[in-house]
């Protein structure tokens, strides 16, 4: 078995990560890894990793990977930023609508009490309810 440790004339292309960044987000971790092709062009891999448990309690990692090459960077980032802006805008509009609904839910229209004298209401205190 001699000679199998290193093959003569075989040069390993260095495709190790040139740069890596891990982002933990809740139950997921995203890895942004810059790697090099055989021609030493850089590309990006984006990996989503989620920890999964089976019925016996053993865990494994479920991974999804995207390979992004330099010629697609501008289009990809434009699409990603556009989608993020859309979501932020839609959520802000939704939150504004919910706040308006909650604010108006307990508001009594001004004209509903027209003609009702204030003496016709009884002031009830919480202490009065316990007797």
UniProtKB/TrEMBL annotation:
Pfam families: DUF3276 (PF11680). InterPro entries: PUR-bd_fam. The keyword DNA-binding applies. GO terms for molecular function: purine-rich negative regulatory element binding; RNA polymerase II transcription regulatory region sequence-specific DNA binding. Keywords: DNA-binding. The keyword Repressor does not apply. Belongs to the PUR DNA-binding protein family. This is DNA-binding protein. It comes from Labilibaculum antarcticum. The lineage of its organism: Bacteria, Pseudomonadati, Bacteroidota, Bacteroidia, Marinilabiliales.
